[in-house]
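step=encode ok
step=design start
structure_in=
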């Protein structure tokens, strides 16, 4: 059930255009990972991923909030683009959170997601092998929707009006400082 939830939610995330919905369905997908680890008896891997996931998912949600606040509450990624040069700190934080969630080597998600997939791979049941295969496919979908979010929001040419684009600025210290703290957890909590 956890593995099926992971791939089902990831397949919905790849179709969303609302930046918050992509991250929300991604959360559901990652919860699927945690549940299939628990279903295999790998409770420590499940709790480990819950802990690392807390850092990078909070980083992604707060970074999305920073973007939404700066562009007058626009949430459609298809109407964004080119924000990295206007919001380099937020863009960098979103990159860190995305690298962590896709399991990029040496970020927190790399260790926790790998421990779940390893538990599934070495299980002696058909259900474990199913969870492993679905977990690998889900990891690929996670990478796809994460890259899609990054490139539609921060890179390429902007689709915002000239007036809105010219008035975009980085968020205040009260938003940036928590992003910085969460980025440390997103990078180092797996170690």
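sequence_out=
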């Amino acid at each position: 059930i956890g593995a099926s939830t992971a791939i089902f939610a990831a397949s919905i995330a790849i179709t969303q255009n609302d930046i918050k919905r992509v991250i929300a369905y991604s959360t559901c997908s990652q919860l699927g990972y945690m549940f299939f680890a628990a279903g295999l008896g790998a409770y420590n891997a499940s709790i480990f991923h819950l802990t690392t996931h807390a850092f990078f998912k909070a980083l992604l949600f707060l970074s999305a909030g920073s973007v939404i606040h700066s562009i007058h509450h626009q949430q459609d990624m298809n109407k964004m683009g080119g924000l990295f040069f206007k919001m380099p700190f937020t863009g960098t934080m979103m990159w860190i959170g995305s690298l962590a969630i896709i399991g990029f080597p040496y970020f927190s998600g790399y260790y926790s997601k790998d421990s779940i997939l390893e538990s599934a791979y070495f299980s002696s049941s058909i259900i474990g092998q199913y969870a492993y295969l679905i977990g690998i496919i889900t990891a690929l979908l996670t990478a796809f929707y994460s890259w899609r979010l990054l490139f539609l929001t921060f890179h390429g040419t902007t689709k915002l009006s000239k007036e809105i684009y010219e008035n975009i600025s980085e968020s205040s210290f009260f938003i940036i400082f928590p992003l910085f703290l969460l980025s440390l957890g997103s990078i180092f909590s797996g170690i």
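step=design ok
step=annotate ok -> The chain has a mean pLDDT of 95.
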